[in-house]
User: Fold these one by one.
Assistant:
Number 1:
Amino acid sequence: MKLAGFNQLPPEQAQAVLAHCVAIKRWQQAMVAARPYASLGALCQQARLLAQEWGEADFVQALAAHPRIGERARGEHKEAALSRQEQAAVGEDAELRQALRIANQDYEQRFGYLFLIRAKGRSGQEMLAELQRRLANTPAQELGEALGQLREITLLRLQESII
Ligand SMILES: NC(=O)NC1=NC(=O)NC1=O
């Protein structure tokens, strides 16, 4: 949608446009309240600024909308379609999918939440390598990295939604 159109939508509709960028209501509502945006640059700057406020609770809330890496998102809602598109690089390599499945389990046992990575632009092998690297992080380090990836996914989706 065009920025001018987004600026003029009623608040609930404007929030619905942002809903699939990240499942954090506080962020969606603050983004809507800060309209009108003079440019796409201002929109993205505000999105980044607000995303700096995210903590563990926000992160856990957002994870519900992200399927595991290597698992095909089910359903037809927009997040599922976006996830399938973003994760397309994982491809049909059965060995890689199995390795991702095992590494995801190790990760979830260690950190207690699912592994999140900005999948767009990364091959399946690169994501497996990142998963294995990040397994060595301390919980505090890993929350920082994972929040950074959530921010990247959110900005990518925002930039695809409002042009
Ligand atoms: N667990 C995940 O990292 N999921 C995802 N990363 C993306 O970039 N899209 C997803 O669905």
Number 2:
Amino acid sequence: MSDAPVFPEGFLWGAATAAHQIEGSPLADGAGPSIWTRFAHTPGMMLNGDTGDVACDHYNRWKGDVKLMRELGLQAYRFSVSWSRILPEGKGRVNQKGLDFYSRLVDELLANDIEPLLTLYHWDLPAALDDRGGWLNPDIADWFADYGRVLYRALDGRVKKWVTLNEPWVVTDGGYLHGALAPGHRSRFEAPIASHHLMRAHGAAVKAYREIGKHEIGLVVNIEPKYPASDSAEDAAAVRRAHAYMNEQYLHPALLGHYPPELKEIFGEAWPEWPAEDYELIKQPLDFVGINYYTRSVTKAATSYPLNTGVVKQPLGTYTETGWEVFPQGLTDLLLWFKQTYGDLPVYITENGAAFFDPPAASVDENGNRRVRDPLRMDYLRKHLGAIHDAIRAGVDIRGYMLWSLLDNLEWSLGYSKRFGMVHVNYVTQERTPKDSARWYSEVIRTHGRKL
Ligand SMILES: CO[C@H](O)c1c[n+]2c([nH]1)[C@H](O)[C@@H](O)[C@H](O)[C@H]2CO
């Protein structure tokens, strides 16, 4: 019998992007500014002063990008909607031209046999809502549910897989605790409040979907296995804190209805007590969970804010351009932990990929074709698909894989310095060039994973 991997019937092969990272034209056709429009135009916030004003110009080039997806054989495409294109003030008046953009995109995807997976929120909060406190205002649960209703009514049926939030951990840790991401706050008191309001908003949006939608909705989290740097009790405790803070802080309330106890230990006086009805709102039944996986952390006790943990670099490890260790086994371990902790809820790998150095422009091969060789990315992807297959064989119900990312794009405050795309973007000419990894991935899809 061939030992080629066998992926389940119906396993969905796709790729992922996010609105602010690829679209450009953030204020076109009546759209309102987001916190990322403001953050990028605040001096010192973005590497090289890069902004999302043009990005991959996907707002204008969307039809050609869908054609490219079709040529690559993608079966699904995970993208996010810019809230402030739909509701320029974040709530109230709907901007029909913004809605029309996504409606056309969805129709074009369906016309090319590509299933849309729509993320309501991928970090680009309307600036008008940030002016009202944003994720620190408890009313945002209602604002977010109302935004979801507009999209559910317009697109449900054509969109059959919905995601409420992309990575509440990054929104909070980056935007409210450490300040590296929009809206750039640095407060141990604000972070738990933003986290809790994000999860209340998630629950309210799922509840609203059950009144309107007829298909599936889930939550996307970034989780990362934590391995102790030594067998000391201090490092074991550090792993427990780091694991609770990143991996359980959002999945526990969403799926179990409570926070892990370590969070009170981590935040101390800054950890609020929340009313019981909040947990009922947050713990809405989900149809799936999306897991974004990139790397692991070998964790030790250290003096750090607020976890008192540190990450130990592995001398024999391989690292990506973003400084993340390549560790496929971590994905298998994580998926087995998820099944053991939360049961048999269907899982999609909604992001997995790596930034390695790619040139600013494609080269031209002996046949006169543009080419971008990216063997390190191919190796990363091959190994992680193997890790996913191992988890499937161990009984984890994994339904699909969305490669991060379809296109090189704006890597948030790192600007255009990091390239995650399987398709190269020349930011001067906006030319798209499928990298070798894209050609390889097409074959993986064509053979349903047998040709890893
Ligand atoms: C900290 O790693 C996270 O899991 C993570 C990595 N990534 C993400 N989350 C975001 O969802 C994407 O928008 C990023 O472009 C992508 C690459 O950095």
